């Protein structure tokens, strides 16, 4: 259990700032629902579905490659080569987006809004340049600097967003800030994001400027051979996660205003599953370097199996924390002038469980990363992307964002299953499948019972009491069935 403790420690060190960073970002999104009607939030949702796609291309798998190659290559040589590569490519990619911004705006369903694409390109430019410095901090075990930069960056973004969307309009109305245009709320939000990303690069100036213009062509070729399938994986992952929001206005068979409103409701409710995605992100921050470091040990597979079991146990509880208390979560996005956000609350549990599937899939991907079969991982992700595309085109016209949320559920469930089956063939890990499936089924059954009570007209407070009882049952079952492993994990003598 000592290895599990090490992972837990790494997850805490790197995960807590990530959780705090993502949570502040979540608060920021909730603020937007209080100032933007659903149509404007639909524009934000559309634009911020585009940025992650480009981010995958801009970084082309170099972060994971950095962790992989530090095991065998001199670190300064690797850092210099990857930094030079990403700096040159970022300038080139940004230029392409900048020149093509009018066409891209039309493709995104934002005709005449090339300025938004240009501002998003600025966000991408600065975010990409921080990729390798952040990876360097993680690899060197410098969590305090990592945490400080992440938290400071989102704090700057929040302050700038409040300035542009809350304080500046009032000052403008009082005769100040003649330059301010109250009609351009979305633009100001993206400007705040871009300036915060620039500040993040300033905060990392010591790490960013530490590289030297020394480029090892042979090493770069070796890294690219390893990383390009990861880029395909990343693009497929973004298709699975973001395509629904990009394709929604194109396939929804109603007027543009209605489509943007529905998209805004979808995007806001999608954000309510953020507790699940935050925990998954925090876990990945600690798990990725941990898994590579454990790969040479004889008991590596057993360690991976234990990690999976504990991860699933924990994520089942996180799912219930979201799904059982929907009335509380939905309050956060209905405090503004537009109550329509509450119409989409029924998709939150679906997205939350789909995110749990995605987290399990991330655990399973270690088999192709360790066996240098990244291309097989790319095929799995591309297969998921095909499922996502087909189901969204099929279901959105019939079921709106409800169909899109179930498409996400099906896609991640299939990817998880296929990755497990292939992994057992090429890198067998003794996962405790009956327990994993049982814990997820228990969490789903508890939510299903409460949903039945909700449909029966049970009031607000009785529903919350039922939610607390359901969470208690889940935790009691986990504590009893895993009492020996939990005791070993908590023991100071473990490992």
UniProtKB/TrEMBL annotation:
The chain crosses the membrane at residues 12-32, 44-62, 82-104, 116-135, 147-168, 188-205, 226-248, 268-287, 307-332, 344-364, 376-397, 403-423, 435-453, 459-480. The keyword Ribosomal protein does not apply. It comes from the Bacteria. Keywords: Cell membrane, Membrane, Transmembrane, Transmembrane helix. It is a multi-pass membrane protein. It is found in: Cell membrane. Pfam families: Polysacc_synt. The keyword Cell membrane applies. PANTHER family: O-ANTIGEN TRANSPORTER-RELATED, PST FAMILY PREDICTED COLANIC ACID TRANSPORTER. This is Oligosaccharide flippase family protein.
């Amino acid at each position: 259990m000592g290895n599990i403790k090490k992972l837990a420690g790494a997850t805490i060190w790197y995960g807590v700032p990530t959780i705090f960073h993502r949570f502040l970002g979540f608060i920021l999104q909730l603020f937007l629902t209080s100032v933007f009607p659903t149509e404007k939030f639909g524009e934000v949702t559309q634009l911020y579905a585009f940025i992650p796609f480009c981010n995958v291309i801009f970084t082309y798998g170099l972060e994971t490659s950095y962790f992989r190659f530090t095991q065998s290559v001199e670190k300064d040589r690797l850092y210099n080569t990857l930094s030079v590569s990403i700096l040159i490519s970022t300038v080139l990619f940004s230029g392409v987006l900048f020149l093509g911004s009018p066409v891209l705006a039309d493709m995104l369903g934002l005709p005449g809004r090339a300025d938004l694409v240009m501002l998003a390109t600025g966000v991408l430019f600065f975010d990409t340049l921080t990729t390798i410095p952040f990876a360097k901090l993680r690899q060197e075990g410098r969590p305090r600097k990592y945490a400080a930069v992440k938290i400071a960056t989102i704090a700057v973004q929040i302050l700038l967003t409040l300035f542009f969307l809350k304080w500046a309009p009032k000052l403008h109305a009082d005769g100040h800030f003649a330059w301010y245009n109250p009609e351009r709320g979305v633009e100001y939000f993206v400007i705040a994001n871009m300036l915060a990303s620039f500040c993040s690069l300033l905060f990392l100036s010591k790490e960013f400027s530490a590289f030297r213009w020394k480029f090892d062509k042979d090493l770069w070729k070796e890294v690219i051979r390893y990383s390009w399938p990861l880029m395909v994986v990343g693009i497929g992952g973004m298709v699975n996660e973001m395509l629904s929001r990009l394709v929604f206005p194109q396939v929804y068979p109603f007027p543009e205003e209605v489509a943007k409103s529905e998209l805004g409701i979808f995007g806001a409710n999608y954000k309510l599953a953020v507790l699940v995605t935050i925990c998954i992100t925090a876990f990945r921050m600690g798990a990725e370097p941990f898994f590579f470091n454990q790969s040479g040990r004889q008991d590596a597979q057993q360690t991976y199996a234990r990690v999976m079991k504990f991860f699933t146990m924990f994520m089942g509880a996180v799912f219930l924390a979201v799904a059982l208390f929907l009335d509380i979560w939905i309050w956060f996005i209905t405090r503004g002038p537009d109550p329509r956000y509450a119409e989409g609350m029924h998709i939150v549990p679906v997205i939350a469980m789909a995110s749990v599937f995605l987290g399990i899939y991330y655990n399973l991907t270690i088999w192709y990363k360790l066996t240098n079969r990244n291309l097989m991982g790319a095929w799995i992700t591309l297969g998921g992307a095909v499922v996502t595309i087909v189901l969204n085109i099929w279901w959105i016209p019939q079921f709106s964002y409800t169909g899109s949320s179930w498409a996400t559920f099906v896609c991640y469930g299939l990817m998880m299953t296929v990755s497990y089956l292939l992994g057992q063939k090429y890198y067998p890990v003794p996962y405790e499948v009956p327990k994993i499936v049982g814990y997820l089924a228990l969490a789903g059954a508890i939510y299903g019972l409460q949903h039945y009570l909700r449909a029966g007209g049970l009031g607000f407070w009785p529903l919350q009491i039922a939610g607390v009882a359901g969470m208690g049952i889940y935790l009691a079952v986990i504590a009893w069935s895993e009492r020996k492993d939990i005791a070993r994990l908590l023991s100071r003598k473990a490992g």
